[in-house]
Design goal:
This protein has 614 residues and is α+β, with helices and mostly antiparallel strands. The protein contains 19 helices and 15 strands. It has 3 domains: 111 residues, no CATH class; 309 residues, no CATH class; 74 residues, no CATH class.
Amino acid sequence: MAARSAVRRLTSSPGFGWRLLALLGVMWVFFSALRTLLGPLFQSMSTFGFHDWDSHSAYRYATVASLKRYHELPWWNPWLGGGFPAWAYVEGATNFISPYLPLYLTLPVQVAERFEILGATLTGLCSAYLLAGRVTRSAALRALVAVAYAVNGRWALQVSVGHSWHMQYAWLPLVLFFFDLSLDPGRRRYALAAGGVLAVIVYMGGIYPLPHTALLLVLYATTSAAVQRTWEPIRALAIASLSGIGFAAPKLFPMVDLMMRYPRKIDSTEAIDLGQLTEMLTNPNQSPAQAPIAVPRWGWHEYGIYVGAWVVLAMVVGFVCARSRKTVALRVTGLVFLVLGMGAFHLHAPWTLLHLMPVFSSQHVPSRFLFPAILLLMLVFAAFAGSYFDRLVASRGWVDLLLLIPVYGAALDIGSVGRKSTMHSFYMEAPPIQPNPEFHHQIVSPYNYVPGDWAGASLLATFANVGIIGSYGLPALEPGAISTGTPEYRGEAYFAGASGAGGARVVHWTPNTATVEYYGAPPGAVLVYNMNFDPSWRADGRPAIDYRHAVATVTPGGAGRVVFSYYPRALNWGLAVFALTLALAFGARRHVLSSESRAWASARARAVFLRRPS
């Protein structure tokens, strides 16, 4: 009855018909943008993506193989680099805790990837549309923000070249939406939701979106606190941050453990000027193979971010003309991200200084900051324009429908430029592959795509159950695994030292385990499993030892059996922190809701008392 009454009130409210038509118009704009931008990906479902798609596809397929073929969780990836952690690697097993896992378990990996791209783009559109509702009631202005953010040229370029981590930017507007909502009176609990979405970015491999989102929240919260002269944004930031860490702990803790052993320090001296930035934003002649201007380093896919001249003009007008207190935090944060995106243009440029800090010292290509900057600056414009149009739209709903016409044109324009990138992203064919019954390592893949690509064919080797020591995409490491066909190769299990020290063979194998039988071993002989060493490997439940960067253990001699197994050593701590966070968050939420309910009931009782006749 309550739901029916609410629907009746909604449908009978003034202007409902126009609002419904405007929402349908927004849906058509989004559909048209998606069809224009992503249509080429679905013309042939058998082809594979070029550039980085091979390695990112291999990460995803390792999850599928572990779950379906070996019925175990994707902790270790034996097929890449001589063996490397899957779960603990920031870009590994990103489809495990993911809404797209069912697609990967039921469809070929190259097909599931296409639907993940579609889902991520739609998520970006909807979350940006939802966030824009915090600054304007106009459906057209909200749609413009969403289109400028979620289908701009950078999205198309990054998706085309296989930077699948970029798709996690789709969650950034949702984080900011929940965080901003938590700043309203009585809604602090939504900071927990912001933390939950931050955890989603961690699980799905947002190597750049996560620190960028965290920095955005810090800037937005501190600026909001200064403008509003209250500590409430800082409290909400603490809740979102701590809950995000707690919810993500099962993956975050193993990731930190791995990164401490393989720290990445990389220089980043790239810089762009205003002229280059203008071309990046407005020149429609751009794709991965077409750079309209010279750039400092890397390919054009790291620079192009087409939105069109009218959208650029909107951002400039909004930034210059917006005056409401609501836009101050957005303007400051957007400006900081814009300047960061221009890179190391000075010895004391913001990016030069930020790059000295932990996490950011492992990143490069500062032009990636421009992607969130577009969202923030478009929100400022929507707030400015909404201050004029919102009351007009409320009284004359047909105005919003008229405003959707130029938004539709902008969506087609942006999508058409992005289509130049997506048309040539999934074009490689795979030859017939015969899986090997027994796993072994090779230097390079025994198969290749047609036509071939510079990044190799790690995915095809994984299909064939062959580990590739020279695979692309992993941190620099000295492999302990030995390839077949080399003079050093002595089998997938062997004894260290002289070749006559005994014999060994793998009798049962999965990605996370290897059962080795041995014979004729002298006391204290070192049994080696031909897999890269990691401190989380164990032998019969005891820590394994490192023998020339391979997994090994000391045997008592004679004949016997050893079970090598891998389980991330920091995972149990992460699970414990996750459980504690869940308990605290659930308890706190019940307490907050109970407090709010009591306050509402008290206010209701006072109102009834005051209305009671004497």
